[in-house]
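Record 1 of the preview.
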Amino acid sequence: MAKKYFRYVPDFSYVSRSHDAQNISDYITVKNLFKRAKLRPDIFADLSKFTKYKIIGDERPDQIAYKQYGDQNLDWLIMMGNNFINLEDEWPMDQQSFHKYLINKYRNEAGIHSSHHYETQEVKDTKGRIILPKGLEVPSDFSITFYDSGVGAEVTHTGITDEWTNYQYEELIQDKKRNIFLLKGRYIALVLEDLKSIMPYKKGSTQYVSKTLVKGENIRLYN
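->
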């Protein structure tokens, strides 16, 4: 996430376990990444506050944030708005990374383009009623026999499957990841105000130093 988000993330100091520490009282201060913000339910659950967006090519969150909000530092808002935690797993790969992933998984180009599975084609009777829907995973030689009232007899349909290669299967997974939601710009100020309220530490803990810092040997990271 971008630097503007980390402005709101508080710190914690803990006893250094580093070999370079000079004495037992040395502390290290870092950002408390365990104190993670999220959109409040009344915003996150209301689709009217979001617009649908399809990621184009190798677009990154910061590029979309600039396009949508005029500020690339709001990339964290795109992640938060889709409840993404791991960018590497939840964001579509760029073309170079995607090809590398395919080679690692399927060994070579031949493996990439070999069969993954077969799916049904849509089959209708002579009256236009759907007998077999499209997209069911079946064996390659799948066939169907049914009574067609339009002809008054049983009929058999063969050759009604489509092959899906490993490449097509993996590409579909990536394509589904391209469909995301973007929080409408007029709600950004509300989210920022929530961050200012959620992120600071609350008084009362023995580890409390300030709204932006707790300190101790065993930190309660969620205080």
